[in-house]
Structure formats: structure tokens, C-alpha cells
Amino acid sequence: MKKNRIIALVLVLAMVPATGIYAAVDTMPSVSEEMLDSGYWTKNNSKADEVLADADMIRRLNASYLADPDCKMNDLANEKETFDGKTANLARWKSAMSELSGFLDGKHYDKEENVLSGKLVLGILGNLDDPNAAKEQELRYGICVHRTNVRAYPTEHIIADDPGDNDFDNVQISGLRVGEPVTIYAESEDGKYYYCHTTCVSGWVLSEDIAECKDKEEWLKAWDFDDEEVMVVTSSKMFLEESNTSPELSGLMLTMGTVLQKVKSYEYGKMIVNRSTYYNHAVWIPTRNEEGMYERKRALISAHHDISDGYRQLTQANIVSQAYEMLGDAYGWGSMLSSVDCSAYVRDVYKCFGLELPRNTTWQSAMPVLKYDISIADDEAKKELFDELPPGAIMFFKGHEMLYLGHVNDKYYVISSTSSMMYPGSKDKARIRGVVINTLDEKRANGNTWIGDLYEVAVPYVENEENVKTPIFGKEEDPGTGRDPAEVTEEDPEYEEIVFDDSWEYAENSKIKYGVARLYHSKAEEPKNITVCINAGHGTMNGTDFKTLCHPDGSPKIITGSTAEGETEATAISDGTIMADGVPEAKATLKAATVIKEQLLKDGYDVLMIRETDNVQLDNIARTLIADNHADVHISLHYDSTAKDKGVFYCSVPADDTYREMEPVRSHWQQHEKLGKSLIYGLGKAGLPIWNDGTLEMDLTQTSYSTIPSVDLELGDTISDYSYATLVKVAQGISEGLDYMYN
């Protein structure tokens, strides 16, 4: 098998002597020609060919992904064999109605570059109705027979972000390889689509690409093979030879990670697909007959194609060589264009070794494997970790993931399927849309470096049954535990997971409410039995895509802030400002929250942490209601958008009779003020600069919904110091202020 080949991407324009050197290709800065050989990264690695996980370990890992609810995998073989089709049909329609209405904002387009219309959306909604839905419906089973797409809705229509950019479709969810199993729950009104569960997502698939099995037994035999029976496609793409005698097999595309069953040698006939089997691999291919039912047929794959007899051995060298198979291939959002996005790329690479990873970045980052939390680590601390990382480790920042390759001369290299970044050395956004190698000092489209925005690293083949992330801190950022940061793992306080409850008062006003908060209990000798909610402001992916009521009663805002006076709806949760050093406010507040948590736990307070990662799916209302129902006080952390080094202040309740008469403000505003003044007292005593009198009147969603003492605490502004030393003072001041309030 050719595992280290380089595909020339440009034509040689002049005659060159046959020296064995590949034609030159465009590369990212600091990527040398020799780095285009996958073997470069493991040539001096004595452990490059050691097996990292055997078949039994891989089976255990797959089972752990499947069992973890945060990985969002579908256990197809154990799904209930009957279900309520009518209720499911209605639920899908309601969900689609809510989602599609969000695209009618004048900022989304159809494939003809027209602003998305209500007429088109109504047509999509109409096709969701399953004419055969029944109260008691039997589950059906199918096998994918062509590489195909999984769609959010049963339509070929495109919903684009940019007019004319039809290569980025919001309807697209994922792809399906030939031979993958599905369970079938519904048909579209026009009969052209099935609503299916796959191993990693649920969505609509063209019915012509699915062959239905007569029963579950036949279905299991069609894909659940023993390891010794399988052949695995390891090239990016390959095509069966064309044939007029077997049109269902002619030119069939097989993509990386496709798993096929071998034809046993004694089953070989004189011919397969009208020719001899010499210099070919014989495999079974699933096909769909005229009745739409499953049949399998023998086919040949030429010897020159990259296909593995059994799953590849999981070694560092093999992981890198497998990743290089797609180098230069097009990026495909949601696996459209018969290609891959960042998470599908990682998923396909590891599938060649038998690992069945979850589908997207959020779900993969939840895998119960060896993980490092680097969300508050500085760049130097991250590099120290990366120096010890094996090639093939998965790195995550908000909305993207990549595979680690290694480091050379203080440059750290990754490979990924990426959509965009800054042009090197420029402030202009580049549409990359391909599988590329680059260094972590390149800048994202948001202006931040890749290394700066990384928040987690995972090694997907090392078990971690308790699913605990090892935190990595900066050199001076041991968060007040008195222990070496490397030891801050098992001895940390246990926590309870807190989720949103739709029965809470005002719950219906929240739009983003699926994240999980964590409640930590103090192990101090004299616990105070008081729970403090620490809410690191911002940090919700796609939070600006939704609007929520500013006030519970629907009345308009009375003071302009991030939302204008007179508006009745506000952004569900904003992205926040950018600090002077280029760090997003959300990262600065998270750093502060982590230090404050440790101080409060040490001082005897229980702590409810709204978020401990770069992304928690909780809007401002959801965060407030979680605090209302699980804490005694609520402190949200922010930095003001000005650049004056303002000092600390809190957002006080507006002195407006109408506002103060609105519930729950009427019953609680005096408690909010008491908390705010107490915190300013404590922060001043700790030596923090206070802005003016420490208050600024502001009409906030948080205090409009709060039923416990609650404040927005501004720790300064974009040029304020948020070093570890300063944050220790902040933490001590907050603890002092709480003591003052309660004593």
C-alpha cells in the first residue's frame, strides 16, 4: 500500500530531469518540502511503530463512546423495535419550524443567490410530513449503497450564508459511507428521503441510496463483521472499475473508512464483474434492487488501490500516514461535496483503525479518554504539554479541531480540514477550504493565534473511565491550591452536574438551555453552607443567533447597553469584547472564574460554576435561572469594552420606578444592591482600584430575572491587568465581600 505518497497539485511548466523529486506545491509558511512526507514526523521516534491499542482495547473504547450521553452516539443494534411514529413526526416538524424560521433573517440565501424566502421554507416543512406515520410503528433497517449525505431536512435546497457560496450549506449534517447501517424512522411526503439514525447522527437521507433489509437479522449480517473478515478503504477516495454488465457497481465511489466484507477465497468464481480476479481484492458490496431491498454482490478492487486487509494497526506512524491520505483534498462542511470537515476528517482517519468516534467537535471533546484542559494555560505552558504529546492527538478550539504532528524549532505543526484563517502575514481572511498542514502560530479569522485559542487536547485511544480532564496552568498560575498543578486532579472537590429545568418560572423565555453547570462543595473544616454562583460572562457558541425577552413581562429596556433602550428583545448571549492583548473577554472571565472558585472553596463557600470551558450552551436567562434555583448569590464576571483601565464596579439596579416595580425586580432589587456594595467593599479592601463610586446603573437581563442577590461585576476593562497575581486579589476581595455581606 502506498502510504506516504504526495499528490502533485500543480502542473510542472518546464521539463525537469527525472530526479525523483515531486512537483512543487503551495504550502503554508514554515512547512518545508520534506514535511510533505508523513514519515518526517516519526523518523526519529523510537515508539513510532509500537501498537497503541489492540482490538480488545478498541472495542472497549468504542463501547465507552457509545455509552457516554455527551458523545451523542446512536446504539443502532439496541434501538426499540417499535415507536410512536405520529408523535415523532410532529416533534420533527416543530423542531424544523423553529430552526428554519431562524434562517428567515435576510442573511441567508438559496442556491440562486436570492434571500431565503418563506415560500421555500414552507415547501421544506411540507415535505417533512410522513404520510405513513402510525401511532405504533415498526423500526426498519437499511444499508447505505452509495456514498451519500445526511441532511437536516428532506430537501436538495441549499441554505447558504453568503450569496453564491453553494459549497457551504447549512442543511448539511454529515456523510454516509457505502456499507454503513441505518435505522429508518420515517419517509418524506414525496417519498424521496428516509429519516434515519446513523451511528453518529440523525437526519434525512435520499431513499435511493439506502437498501432496506427484510429483517434485523439480515441487517446485522450486512455490516457487523468479525475483524478478520473486513477490508478497509484507506485512500481518500477510490472508484470501482466501470462495467456495463454490472451497472450498480460501475464506477462506485468508496471513501476513507469504508468497511467491506472480504469474499473468501473458496467463493471466488472464474470471474467477478465479468472478469478474472487476478491482481484484485474480491469484496462484497451492498446494492439496492428494483424493489429497494438489500442484496450483496461481489466486486473487485484493483491491487494498486490503498485498501487494508483488516483494520490498520494503531501506531503513531500509521496515524500520521493515514492523515496524509487527504492532504490537499477539499473541505466539505458537514461532509458535503463527498469530502470532510474538521471533525469528519479526524473521524475518518481513526475509522481506518477500527475506532468509531462521535461526529462533531463538541461530541468528540466529550469522549471519555485522556484529556487535558488547557483553557486557561498560557502559550508556554501549552508548548510544554505539546512537547510530550504523541502525533495524532486531537486538539480543539471553538468550532475546529486538528491532529497534532509535532514540533520543529519552537514551531508546532498540525494537520486539519479547515475552512478559513487569516492570510499569513495579513489581516485579510482567507478561504482555505482544504486539508492543510500549518503551524499553531497562524491566525484564525478572528485574529487570534491557533495556539492561543486551543482549549482542550484529547488522546482518543487512551481510556479514561472517570472522564476527568487534567488541567494545565501557566507557570505562575497554580490556582491557590498549594499543590503542584500537575497534581490537581483526583483530590479536587467532586461536583454535581446541574441542568436546566423547563418547569422553572420564566423557563420558557430561555432559548439556549442545554449546557451543564457544575456545583462544587467545599471541603473546608468549617463550611459556610452558602452557595455562590460564579458566572464567567459570555462563552456560548452561536449565542448571538438568538433573541430573548429583556424583561419577563415583555416590557422594553429603559437604559441602552449592548441592547438599545426601547427594545423588548436582546441577544441571548453576546460574544463580549476583546482584551488589549487580543484575548477574547470570554477567556479572560473564565480565567478569573477559575481562580475565584478555588479561593471560595478554600474559604468554605460552595461554588456553582456556570461554565468551565470556552463554550457552554446556556444563554443569560438560563444561567440566571440555574443560579436562582441552585445558589444563594449570583456573581457574573465581565470586563467593560472601554480602554481606560477603569477599575472595578458593579451594574446597579436603575433608579426607575417602573423598572423597580416589575417582578421579580421589585422583590429583590435591594438584595442585589446589598451584594454589589458588599463586593465593592471587599475588593477595595483587597487593594483593587474602584471606578468612581463602584456602580453604574444598567438594565440587565440577569437582574431582571434574578430571585436571589445578583450582580454583574465588571473587573475592569480591556486594558486592565488580569494576570494571575491580580486575579488572586480579586478572588480574595470577593470572598471578603461575601463575608461582609453575611456577617
Architecture overview:
This protein is α+β, with helices and mostly antiparallel strands and 743 residues long. The chain has 15 helices and 33 strands. Helix 10 crosses helix 15. The longest helix has 21 residues, at 665-685. The radius of gyration is 28 Å and the shape is globular.
Which class best fits the helix and strand makeup? alpha+beta
Poorly predicted regions are 1-22, 475-493
Shape assignment:
globular
Strand order of the largest sheet: 24-25-29-26-30-33-31-32
State the CATH architecture of the largest domain.
3-Layer(aba) Sandwich
Total beta strands: 33
CATH superfamily of the largest domain: Zn-dependent exopeptidases
Mean pLDDT: 91
Per DSSP, the total helix count is: 15
What's the main sheet like?
8 strands, mixed
Name the beta content range. Answer: 15-25%
Distance between the termini: 74 Å
Identify the CATH class of the largest domain: Alpha Beta
In total, the number of domains comes to 4
- CATH topology name of the largest domain, in short, is Aminopeptidase
Q: Taking Cα atoms only, what radius of gyration do you get, to the nearest Å?
A: 28 Å
* Quaternary organisation of the protein chains: single chain
Helix content: 10-25%
